[in-house]
Structure formats: structure tokens, C-alpha cells
């Protein structure tokens, strides 16, 4: 099921330039090896809701497998935004004649895209639900492509759709086999597992580094957990464009530091902590600070994040001046977070985005604090301490309640 690095790079390059239909042709007809079709599908018998959602007739864009039974269908929404409420009735209508398919939507200007996989949801109470519309039990999973999206995950998952990588059975390449590959490529749990594995590896590196410096592994555990939660939270904040209206603010912030004449290994102490403890607590007023003007202006307008996560606490001050958070370590943190797409959409049990969502922060947090006291008493290497301090409740409230209340799409 793995795809070559070269193929993933090619797909990512296409996705980065996905504006208009020419890149879509290259993606499916050349790179992913589907057969060209390009045939309009009539909306004559469609409902008014589904019909009015589109700017023009959808197109059977490509096909694959035996008798071309698996379909790639492109639809252009009559809106500059990708609205799920417009996409769902279109997909529901198209599924009647196209049971094995990938649905590709663009906005009206064709610079933002959704790739939608529809998978049947197994239910234990199938008999009790047999009289209901079966489409209500279908899970819609989407990959978002656009100028503000990070495309590493998208390119990896879409590269998996290459028909040449799907193993045919003795009777040929069935649409069911292709559909299964698409279902695997859109598996949100696979993204969650990959994110957690990388997070855990990075967590171990940071904890070990700080524990060696302070001789306090318990503190190092709590500090790193808080630090990474703050950094991850930033990716949801910048996704809302609440920092200088820029969805890449963290990278720009880091690059500005690297171009400055500040001492080495001072980013976390002199730059990042000022943003955390002052800008997000209405205490940053510019002045003769060491920030470039564009950074200083952005921090003065930063939102007040009233949840406790960005208030300086005992973990921050306990070993002040006795440890160094090296620039190389923060570079590792940034590299990890830049690899993933963070979504602020509100998923439902039957509608998911293939990305890291706010709930993932809670899952990561729970996984690293939910260990037994007995394990902690042993002090075994790699066994994490269970915090009994205010940081426990603070993180839970900030990561769950604050995101739920404030990072809602409007």
C-alpha cells in the first residue's frame, strides 16, 4: 500500500498549484493513472437543493477498474466557499448512480477543493434501522486543498489512490478493490495514530533533554506536556488567522527570530514566552522590544486567550535560568507541527476531515497523563508521571472548553 517518495512529491507539487482544471487533469489522468472520461452528468432530475448547489453540471472526470466502474466525479459549487451543506445533497444524489466513486468539489473560483470519500458505517442495530434511509449511515470524509492548507498529509493520502498500486485479483481490478483503497487513504484514525507516534517520539526527546539539565524528570514531563500543548494550540489560533491575519504566523515568527541578531538559544525565553505570557494576556504593549515592527504590531493585536493555558505558572518559573530550551529543539517542534494540517471545522460522527482536529489535543493529553501511580513510584524510564497539580485541570479546560467556545467557524 505504500507509495514512492517521488510519487508523493509529484502529487504535492500538483496540489500546490491546484487552481483551475488543468492540474486536475494531470493529477487523475497522468499521475494517478485513471482513464480520461470528461463527460457532463445531467442535473435534469435532481432536487432543487442539489441542482442549485452547483454552478454547472457535474462531470464524470475519470474512471478506473473493470469496465470503468469506479468513478471520479468533479463538481463546481455555486459559491466562493466550500460549504458542506451544499456538497452533501450533491453527493447523496450522485451516489444513486455512482456507488463506487470519489467526489471532487471546488469553489466557484476553483482555488479551494474538497476530495470526498464516502464509506458505509457499520451499525450493530442494523435491523432496527432497516427502514431508515441508508445514506444517513454513510460517513463523509474529506481532504481539503487550498492556499492556506499544509499539504504533506494530503499528498501522502492522495498518492495512495494511484491505480497502479492497487493489486488486481485473478479476475481483474474490481471497483470494490479500488473503493477499499480509497477508504484506506481517507482513514482519519491512521492520521491520528501517525500524529501520536511522532508526538510521543518528540515528547521523549524533549523530556530527556530537560530532565538531564534539571535532574527532575517529573518536572520535565509536566513542562514538556504544557509546552507542546501551547504550541499545538497556536496552530488552531493561527488557522483562525487571529495573528496578523496570517495562517503561517508561527513559521514567520520563527524565521524572523533566525534573521535577527538575538543570542542563540533565546527564542523560547525571549520570543515565544513573551507571546504566550504577554500578548495572549493583554500585557504586550510594544515599546522598545527586540521584535521587528511587523511582529510587534501583530502581537499587540493578539487575541486575549482567557483559559489559563498561557498564564505563567510554577512550571515556567521553577527552574528559570537553570535550563536552556535550545533552538535546535524548537526547530524539531516546528518541523513536526508544520507537517500536519490542523482543522477548526466541527466534525460530526458522519462527517470528518482528514486532518488533526481540536479533539486530538485532548486525546494526546489524556494518553500522557493517564498512567498508574504505581508506575510513577517505580520511576521506570519512559513511564510518565500523572500530574496532581493545577496544570492538569488547566490544560483540560483550555484545550477542550476554550477551543469549543472560541474556535468555531463563522
Could you characterize the architecture of this molecule?
The structure is a single chain. About 45% of the residues lie in helices and about 10% in strands. By secondary structure, the protein is α/β, with parallel strands linked by helices. A hairpin with a 5-residue loop joins strand 2 and strand 3 (about 70-75). The longest helix is centred in the middle third of the chain and has 27 residues, at about 190-215. The radius of gyration is 24 Å and the shape is elongated. The two termini are about 40 Å apart. Residues about 125-135 and about 370-410 have low confidence and may be disordered.
Uncertain runs? 124-136, 371-410
SSE run? HHEHEEHEEEHHHHHHHHHEHHH
Average of per-residue pLDDT values: 83
Spatial separation of the terminal alpha carbons: 38 Å
- Write out the strand line-up for the largest beta sheet, numbering strands in chain order: 1-2-3-4-5-6-7
Structural class: alpha/beta
The Rg value, from CA coordinates, equals 24 Å
Question: How would a crystallographer describe the biggest sheet?
Answer: 7 strands, mixed
Question: What is the number of helical segments per DSSP (H or I, 4+ residues)?
Answer: 16
What is the number of E strands?
7
* Beta-strand residue fraction: 5-15%
Give the overall form.
elongated
**Share of residues in helices:** 40-55%
Amino acid at each position: 500500500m505504500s507509495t514512492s517518495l517521488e510519487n508523493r512529491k509529484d502529487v504535492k507539487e500538483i496540489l500546490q498549484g491546484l487552481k483551475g482544471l488543468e492540474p486536475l487533469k494531470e493529477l487523475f489522468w497522468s499521475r494517478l493513472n485513471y482513464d480520461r472520461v470528461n463527460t457532463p452528468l445531467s442535473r435534469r432530475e435532481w432536487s432543487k437543493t442539489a441542482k442549485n448547489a452547483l454552478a454547472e453540471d457535474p462531470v464524470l472526470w475519470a474512471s478506473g477498474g473493470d469496465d470503468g466502474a469506479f468513478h471520479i466525479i468533479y463538481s463546481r459549487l455555486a459559491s466562493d466557499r466550500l460549504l458542506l451543506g451544499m456538497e452533501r445533497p450533491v453527493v447523496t444524489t450522485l451516489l444513486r448512480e455512482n456507488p463506487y466513486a470519489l467526489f471532487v468539489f471546488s469553489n466557484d473560483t476553483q482555488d479551494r477543493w474538497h476530495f470526498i470519500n464516502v464509506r458505509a458505517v457499520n451499525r450493530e442495530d442494523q435491523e432496527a434501522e432497516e427502514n431508515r434511509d441508508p445514506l444517513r449511515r454513510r460517513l463523509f470524509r474529506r481532504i481539503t486543498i487550498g492556499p492556506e492548507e499544509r499539504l504533506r498529509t494530503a499528498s501522502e493520502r492522495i498518492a495512495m489512490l494511484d491505480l497502479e498500486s492497487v493489486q488486481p485479483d485473478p479476475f481483474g481490478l474490481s471497483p470494490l478493490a479500488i473503493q477499499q483503497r480509497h477508504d484506506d487513504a481517507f482513514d482519519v484514525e491512521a492520521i491520528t495514530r501517525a500524529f501520536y507516534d511522532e508526538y510521543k517520539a518528540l515528547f521523549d526527546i524533549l523530556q530527556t533533554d530537560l530532565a538531564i539539565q534539571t535532574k527532575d524528570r517529573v518536572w520535565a514531563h509536566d513542562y514538556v506536556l504544557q509546552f507542546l500543548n501551547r504550541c499545538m494550540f497556536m496552530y488552531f489560533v493561527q488557522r483562525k488567522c487571529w495573528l496578523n491575519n496570517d495562517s503561517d504566523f508561527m513559521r514567520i515568527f520563527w524565521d524572523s527570530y533566525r534573521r535577527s541578531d538575538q543570542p542563540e538559544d533565546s527564542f523560547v525565553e525571549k520570543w515565544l514566552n513573551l507571546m504566550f505570557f504577554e500578548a495572549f494576556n493583554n500585557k504586550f504593549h510594544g515599546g522598545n522590544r527586540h521584535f521587528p515592527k511587523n511582529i510587534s504590531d501583530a502581537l499587540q493585536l493578539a487575541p486575549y486567550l482567557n483559559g489559563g493555558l498561557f498564564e505563567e505558572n510554577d512550571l515556567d518559573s521553577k527552574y528559570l535560568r537553570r535550563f536552556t530550551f535550545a533552538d535546535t529543539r524548537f526547530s524539531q517542534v516546528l518541523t513536526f507541527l508544520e507537517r500536519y494540517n490542523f482543522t477548526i471545522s466541527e466534525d460530526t460522527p458522519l462527517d470528518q476531515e482528514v486532518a488533526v482536529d481540536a479533539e486530538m489535543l485532548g486525546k494526546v493529553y489524556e494518553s500522557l497523563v493517564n498512567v498508574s501511580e504505581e508506575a510513577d513510584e517505580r520511576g521506570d524510564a519512559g513511564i510518565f508521571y500523572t500530574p496532581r497539580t493545577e496544570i492538569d485541570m488547566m490544560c483540560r479546560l483550555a484545550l477542550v472548553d476554550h477551543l469549543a467556545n472560541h474556535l468555531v467557524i463563522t
